[in-house]
Amino acid sequence: xxxxxxxxxxxLGMVYALVAVGYSLVFGILRLVNFSHGSVYAFGAHIAxxxxxxxxxGIVWGLCASVIVTGLLGIAIDKISLEPLRKKxxxxxxxxxxxxxxxxxxxxxxxxVFGSESKWFPKIFDYGMIYIGNVALKSTQLGIFLVxxxxxxxxxxxxxxxxxxxxxxxxxxxxxxxxxxxxxxxxVVSFTFFLGGASAAIAGxxxxxxxxxVNPQMGFIVGLKAFSAAVLGGIGILHGSxxxxxxxGISESFGVSYLGGGYRDAMxxxxxxxxxxxxxxxxxxKKKVEKx
Amino acid sequence: GEKESDTVKVALxxxxxxxxxxxxxxxxxxxxxxxxxxxxxxxxxxxxxxxVSYDDKNSGEEAASIAERIVGDKSISAVVGHFASGxxxxxxxxxxxxxxxxxSPSASHPDYSSEGDYIFRNNSLINVEAAxxxxxASEVFDAKRVAVLSxxxxxxxxxxxxxxxxxxxxxxxxxxxGHEEIVDGTVxxxxxxxxxxxxxxxxxxxxxxxxxxGPFTLQxxxxxxxxxLIGFSNAYSEQLIELAxxxxxxxxxxxxxxxxxxxxxxxxxxxxxxxxYGSIPNSLTAQAYDSMGLILTAMEKSGSVDRETIKNELxxxxxxxxxxSTTFDENGDALKTFNWLTxxxxxxxxxxx
Amino acid sequence: xxxxxxxxxxxxxxxxxxxxxxxxxxxxxxxxxKGEIISIIxxxxxxxxxxxxxxxxxxxxxxxxxxxEGREIQGKTPQEIVMAGIARTxxxxxxxxxxxxxxxxLTGTHTNTHYNFLxxxxxxxxxRKIEAEKTQKAIDILDSIGLKDKMSDYSVNLPYGDQxxxxxxxxxxxxxxxILLDEPAAGMNPQESEYLLDFIKSLVGRGYTILLIExxxxxxxxxxxxxxxxDHGKKIAEGLPTEIANNKQVIExxxxxxxxxxx
Amino acid sequence: MNKxxxxxxxxxxxxxxxxxxxxxxxxxxxxxxxxVIALPKIGLSSYLIRVMTMIALYSLLGQSLNxxxxxTGQVSIGHAGFCAIGGYTSALLNVTFGMNFVxxxxxxxxxxxxxxxxxxxxxxxxxxxxxxxxxxxFGEIVRMIALNWEGLTGGPLGVANITRPVIFGKELTTxxxxxxxxxxxxxxxxxxxxxxxVRSKMGRAFMAIRDDALAATLMGIEVTRYKVxxxxxxxMIAGLGGSxxxxxxxFIDPNTFNFDISILIVSIxxxxxxxxxxxxFLGAILLISFPEILRFASEYRFIxxxxxxxxxxxxxxxxxxxxxxxxxxxxxxxxxxxx
Amino acid sequence: MLKxxxxxxxxxxxxxxxxxxxxxxRGEIVTLIxxxxxxxxxxxxxxxxxxxxxTGKIFYNDKEMTGIIPGEIVKRGISLSPEGREVFPQLxxxxxxxxxxxxxxxxxEIEESYDMVYELFPRLKERKNQVSKTxxxxxxxxxxxxxxxxxxxxxxxxxEPSLGLSPNLVQMIFKLIKDINNLGTTILLxxxxxxxxxxxxxxxxxxxxxxxxxxxxAKKLLNDENVKKAYLGNL
Lengths: 292, 353, 263, 339, 235
Ligand SMILES: Nc1ncnc2c1ncn2[C@@H]1O[C@H](COP(=O)(O)OP(=O)(O)OP(=O)(O)O)[C@@H](O)[C@H]1O
Ligand SMILES: Nc1ncnc2c1ncn2[C@@H]1O[C@H](COP(=O)(O)OP(=O)(O)OP(=O)(O)O)[C@@H](O)[C@H]1O
Ligand SMILES: [Mg+2]
Ligand SMILES: [Mg+2]
Hints:
Low-confidence stretches of chain D: none
Shape of chain E: globular
Largest sheet of chain E: 6 strands, mixed
Order of helices and strands of chain D: HHHHHHHEEEHHHHEHHH
InterPro entries (chain C): AAA+_ATPase, ABC_AA/LPS_Transport, ABC_transporter-like_ATP-bd, BCA_ABC_TP_C, P-loop_NTPase
Strand content of chain D: under 5%
Protein name (chain C): Amino acid/amide ABC transporter ATP-binding protein 1, HAAT family
CATH topology of chain E: Rossmann fold
Helix content of chain D: 55-70%
Strand content of chain E: 25-35%
Oligomer: heteropentamer
Distance between the termini of chain D: 25 Å
Number of helices of chain E: 10
Radius of gyration of chain E: 17 Å
Strand order of the largest sheet of chain E: 6-7-8-3-9-10
CATH superfamily of chain E: P-loop containing nucleotide triphosphate hydrolases
Organism (chain C): Dethiosulfatibacter aminovorans DSM 17477
Pfam family, one (chain C): ABC_tran
Number of strands of chain D: 4
Strand order of the largest sheet of chain D: 1-4
Bound molecules: adenosine-5'-triphosphate, magnesium ion
Low-confidence stretches of chain E: none
Structural class of chain E: alpha/beta
CATH class of chain E: Alpha Beta
Keywords (chain C): ATP-binding, Nucleotide-binding, Transport
Shape of chain D: globular
Number of helices of chain D: 14
């Protein structure tokens, strides 16, 4: 039983991790809490739904279309609403509220176009169940796990091993200096938003394929919890997001068993607050050095 | 003396946007459909009927604000509306205080109708419906070990509470072996499935709408394909079959409205609804349709559009609608009879008793 | 004419501080007497700012002793240290950017403004009297340092040199006995440095004691009663300005050989 | 000079006039008072009075959040949690013990303040985003507890049949304008208190912490203590707002004060201008009346609402009345040598 | 080579530059002096595109480059060591330098530049992996200059390079300015240490409250009585 709970939690955790990586990515570069990420994730899922089901191209093309369209949406969000704020050197909180405004627009736009009801979504990685002892593991769970790991490695590679990754980190720390280094800040930021959007699309498609259900509100609570997961792990640290996701997932799974389903959504936040009190920069976060 | 106007106004308040927009839109559609039908036949008391729609987003605050607005508009004679009980109850004190009839097609909170004599519901009381699900468990599935999954809303909590603590005792052959709760909007049921499985139930009663019953069915049948599932009337929706596909086969639920019913009135309603809006109405939509019918009939019978007269008349009428024959008890609660439905070959059919 | 009382105000004994493997401050001793202007000089990265950080309680985990007015500073919080009478400016300016110039100075008076919550909520007579008093004091300080005209400006909009002055004004407002100035003349032109120099001297006349870090030798040599020289965390020399200017080791490590500008 | 600056400078000039002339000030105050008293009496529909009541309530909540976010610089997106605590406290005391508004509101403030302390003390060491997300978590946890602790809160059923405020034996309703007078009175008291705090040593400490916590420490300001104080005061005001609200709508359930409400409050202060008391009123007026005005747009309403947020912030990120004020500093009376 | 024509720059509604005309010829060292708040930093900010002039034009190699983004300006060969150092605080010294060479492609030449700056500032080499936030003020200043050099610019703009440096390093910096100028780099130098600046410069401009009030041969200005009185001090 406990093992089953852990496995349930792990999968759920990877779900959060997939979404959390997108939060972390944008936060890591821009110090911006991108509240629209949850609705961008729902948007990605709907694009995949349209391409795969309504237009009948199947899930693979659905995923591809979703990655590109959602990535572009990411860029559009930045160009239209956030870039002007960067120019005016506004406070981070203004940008945060802007992203909330964006998420209203996207979520309600989705509702108008698709209706607010839940819709069926085709299953992915469907190779039945895998039994380890009497623990049941769905092949979809395994698929999600693998994709998360690959996505994570890919993003980590970009950020820590490439020149554009160095530029991203530079922008985060000192935008003015980044300009002076000849970095085309807006392009790099757009690229970051593309990655953020694309990762949301991947997450949206995979997770919808796992639960076989999509609706315009799907991003909200997952978004909040994934965000907590990202902070829990140490926001801006990509593998921290994965760890945070897993911790949240497993604690939820146990929370359901021992406290009842009603407390389920509280678990993520409870763990978050407890961890932050003990480790103010998250599980993997390091204290920023202060020099006076 | 106000000037006699040549229209009769009825307000419709429901979530037309937001997470519950599908239900609210259904209300709005149904109410307007009925008004159109009456208007074609000459309206009520010789006046044309006008539906004034308000969107409360299923938020108590919005609802209260809209209620103030409605009661202040003297030309409005009655209100159909508010979706969730909690939202209804944020608005009903205002309706009661000023004195205007509110009929909710969906409120099920036990306390709702006791807010006052102007407050009605055209929905069965939760204990009645809960008793039906147990009857299904016992008679259709011959269930021995029943588990309950309930959504953590006012409706889900009160229903599961009555089901487990009051009603189950009437079925000695049947044991309640587990109860799990989930919050609305949940899509991942794996920990819940794991917890429920532990008690090895043969039947699960799901106190939740189609968007819970659907994905839950998928995820539960993945691990135990033989489970019997029972839902409630608000899971009665084509969307349920759409979401759960083949896994939906065999799900049973009680409802006061059945769209493929042989009843002629129902058939006409379903076909004109489908023609007008391109979708099949669900149970709550039908109840909204009848709520409007009740109000209009009360006006016609009493010969007045006065707010108080309508109220008094409602306690006296018997209305033969598409959700069965309706009368109100002294609380303003509707008394209803149920059909049992199951899903067979991708369609809802009546259970043969 | 200023008077140096022969009273030790601040004494530092065997002060040491490590960052990882780096000995940023290594067994440093020095003494500051009341009414003195003492300079600490030394190459970049010698550990000067770190000494200031230790004196003001920013790092609490260090070796050695700091004794201020006969009491040890170790274990005291930065607040307690300010209240005991040590105030400072920062090498990298740290003003309250979105506050006005005068509000920055008023913030400096925080520890010596005494009224309670009820006073402030009800704006009692006492409250109004103290507020007026402190505002007056802030204006006077700004006047003396030449920022009175700009007291309504937001500090972030001031030019660099004025920001430095404002830092000093804010430190003075704390009523500290000793003021630690970390490169106050950086970013000022010679004429302004000269003005600053006069100002610092006038502070001593008003009873303050000054500990100064500065790379501008025209300032240091002109103003200091005594100079300590730090290199690689260690004290390598101390003495009167003239002694230091001619100290071979100091010239080697710090001043540079062909320095012609030093008077 | 562009147009925006012109508007600003006219505004500033008016304010200068206002502040310099005692006579003008008194005239305006009295006029406002008469207006407020008259509003419910001039035959406005109860709907409009209700909207105005909500504007006043959200101004109060905005002032409360502005204290920690605008002045102390601690961004909270879980403020509705404090409203909920205040609301439940009041609701339960009223329903169980029949406590009247005055007492129950007082208790609500105290309990909310205690929670402000409990949340503030351990989490205020957190910086920036970490604190923000902790407050989000707090808001959600409060909601979850309200949902699950059925024995106390009634769970999803909520608490119903709360009585309206009764003051001097008179029941205050929307219809008799009583609720409107009450909230205006509370708003006045709260605004005066916050103004007093801001224009004092304490307010300066808050702002110093916002701008540079370390430098503030070295000015002798006990950073954590002041942060906690601002949290507690803010939580108390939010609790008061929550209490008023439940006595007004006479019902509370776990969704009454949800995340959307927290966000609405933050949006009000961002739009109005953080750290500007006048701005908050403006923000509340705009954000509460927009959805009402936009009702005709029905399903597009939220999109329009989102657009308004995005566009307003885009063109005025510091808020309508926020940012640096290009006016001279207002000296306390009795100071010579001011400019 | 670099030409500013009647440039006006504002901060919101603060008129900081009131019509600056300035010419820098290839291979020159030009210095800009003036008291606090005169607009020196603003001038450099306007040249590098960080600030947009309201009116006026900037030409580089006879091509107009008013309103171009800073990234492009760096690519064209202008780099700045800014006031206030502006290092990337959480990156190591080495990563800071890598970003300095962001616009350059030739790996080998970049390696040579590393060698050069590390040789100039041995302290930076020693601390290659130290997070730059923890460097002392002077060390950060060295890093800012080194980073500007990493771009291998045609025109190097220096905003108070000697700020916070010890006297021997100040001498070293001025020598360095001469040296890289001899290697063909054009230099625009902003300095508070006007005496030193005028000594190394070929020509100079004197700025006062956003206007150029004097210009000419650096050595001449060095002996100008007014300049002496206002900017050189008498210590
Ligand atoms: N937090 C830290 N971690 C690691 N090294 C540090 C830290 N703080 C300071 N150092 C190092 O300690 C040394 C002393 O630094 P400090 O700031 O005291 O120098 P300084 O004498 O003030 O120099 P400058 O004149 O350049 O300001 C420097 O080499 C610096 O890099
Ligand atoms: N961000 C800003 N907002 C508003 N005004 C500013 C800003 N930055 C500079 N100013 C103003 O612009 C003018 C020119 O400033 P600038 O920084 O260019 O002077 P500077 O000559 O570099 O002075 P310093 O020698 O002190 O560095 C000053 O009056 C200053 O107050
Ligand atoms: Mg230093
Ligand atoms: Mg400058």
